[in-house]
Every structure is written in C-alpha cells, then in structure tokens.
Amino acid sequence: MDRITAAKVFVSIAERGSMIAAADALAMSRAMVTRYLAEMELWAGARLLHRSTRRLSLTDAGTLTLARCRSMLELAEEMALDSTVEEGAPRGLLRISCSQSLAQAVLAPAVTAFLQRFPHTTVDLQINNRAVNLVEQRIDLALRITNALEPNLIARQLAQCDSVVCAAPAYLARHGRPGQVADLARHNCLTYSYFGKSLWQFTDAHGESVSVPVSGNLSANEDTSLLRAALHGAGIVLQPRYSVMGLIARGELLPLLESFTPQQMGIHAIYTSRQHMPAALRAMLDFLADWFRHDAGWLAHTPLLPGPGPRRLPRAGQPGQA
C-alpha cells in the first residue's frame, strides 16, 4: 500500500481521535482507514494506538511514529516546490511556541532575520505561557525559560536569562525600599501564579545562596501583566532583564537589592526528536543559538506592553546594562 497515504491516515486518526472522523475527513471508507492503520503498524513494527470505547490514544511508539509521519509528509510536500530552490536549503513551515515577553523581546526580531535569510521558510508563532505538548499541538519548537525541564524532553540551551527585582518610584515612596532579601517578605510582591507558593532565590556578594518566600495581593499567569501592574505602583516584581531594561533606563522602574543576584534561568529550545529533523528546524536551532550568543541587543529590547493605548518604550542607552 502507499506509505505516504498510510502516513496521512495515521496523522488524521491521531489528530481527530477516532477512525470514523479520519475517514470522514479523508473521504475514505472505515474499512480503508483500518487497512492503512494496519499497514502503518506493520511498517512501524509496533502497536500505535490504545483503543477504547470512547477515544483512541497514542502509545509511546505511536507518539514517535506520529512525529516521523509529520516530518515525512512535510518532506513530501516540499518535493513539489520550485526546482530553482537550492537543494538542501531550509524550507517549509515551522510552528514555534513561546511566552509573550520572550516572543516580543527576542523571537520576533530573530524570526524576522531568519525569514530574510531563508526566504522559502514560513513561521507560525504560538504565544503561550504554559508548557505545551509538542506532539498533540503540532509544535516543531518551543522556547522555555526554566531550570526544571522534564527529563524526557530533548532540549538545547540557548542562553541564560538574568532577572531584576524592581518597583515603580510611586510604590517605593509609599512603602520604602527593601535593604535585604528578607525584607521582601514584608512587601507586596507580584507573583507568577504557575509557581504556586513563590520562593525568590538569590546569590549574595559572597556567593552564598539566600531565598525568601514572597506573597502579595496580585498574581498572574503571564509576566507582562505583572510588569504593567508594577509600573502602576502595585508592588515589587521579579522580571527578566530583557523586559525591564528600557523602563529602568527611563526611571519608570527602579532596580532593588542590587548587591544580590537573582537566580538565573536557562532559555531552552525544546523539540521532539534529534532524528529525521527537518532542515528548517535544524537551521532555526542553529540560528537562534547564534542570535543569543552574538546579538547582545536582544537584552536591550523592551516589549510592547499590553493594555489600553500601548506604546513602545525606547531602548536602554547601553545594551546589557541596567
């Protein structure tokens, strides 16, 4: 049987969750869909689906086969591209997931430069502050800022993300400045709700680790909302350095506890498999690694803040300096 069609059938079953829905989408009979699925399982040498009365779900082998089938189908589509495209050149669609602040500060300018260098590629940005399931949501690449990656993920670290503790002058005029990390426990700290009980961690001037549990009357699942609240004097916030550089340079936020260094977080590129990697994905990984390594200007970008009447704030005067 045609393995390309078998791959299309398997992908359709996995995405729609049932063989009947796949048959309808592909205008095939249920019997033909069953035959193509059997062919795929024979080809893969493993059972690909758990079958229940309610819904089909992928086995471990099915998850791996699904990623390979999608790569194979994308490659098949690329075969029809203009023959003038240089052989082996990156091409095709990349779906990339990223948080809002990192997308605005880093990914948007980096992707723009990537698309200019590789004009036969296209990018679909999925802005999401939660960790996504790459296979189920058909994501080729996810960028995450974290120090706690799941052990089964394939990740490439691109850079380190520095953070800054800061607050608006209006808040500090009302409540004073914290002099020590422990003082943060008595302040209204704006926290990231995915972390549960927030523990802010630092290194002091002697290299010793120090941490403090913080809390406040506002938490959010998205960091640019906390940043805007801090600008309006809501409290003290811990933000990526790239988000607050311009604001600190303008005096709209003031850095705090400068003799203490907040814990660094890794910026990681997450993808599904090192094998059968499309040329466009490999090119994007290498491009982003080079971008973070050599383009220090990404630290000087201030994202466009959400809310009524947004405006773009100018860059800091000296990249890499608060």
Structure, explained:
There is one protein chain. The chain is α/β, with parallel strands linked by helices. The protein folds into 3 domains: 3-78, Arc Repressor Mutant, subunit A (Orthogonal Bundle), CATH 1.10.10; 92-160 and 266-300, 3-Layer(aba) Sandwich (D-Maltodextrin-Binding Protein, domain 2), CATH 3.40.190.10; 163-263, D-Maltodextrin-Binding Protein, domain 2, CATH 3.40.190. Helix content is 36%, strand content 22%. It contains 9 helices and 15 strands. The chain has helices spanning 3-16, 19-26, 30-44, 60-78, 100-117, 169-175, 223-231, 241-250, 279-294, and strands at residues 49-50, 57-58, 92-98, 121-127, 141-146, 154-161, 163-167, 189-192, 198-203, 209-214, 219-220, 236-240, 254-255, 261-262, 265-271. Strands 4-3-5-15-6 form a 5-stranded mixed beta sheet. Strands 11-8-12-7-13 form a 5-stranded mixed beta sheet. A hairpin with a 5-residue loop joins strand 9 (198-203) and strand 10. Helix 1 packs across helix 2, helix 1 (3-16) crosses helix 3 (30-44) and helix 1 (3-16) packs across helix 4 (60-78). The longest helix has 19 residues, at 60-78. The chain is elongated, with a radius of gyration of 24 Å. The protein starts with a helix and ends in a 28-residue tail after the last helix. The model is unreliable at 301-322 (pLDDT under 50).
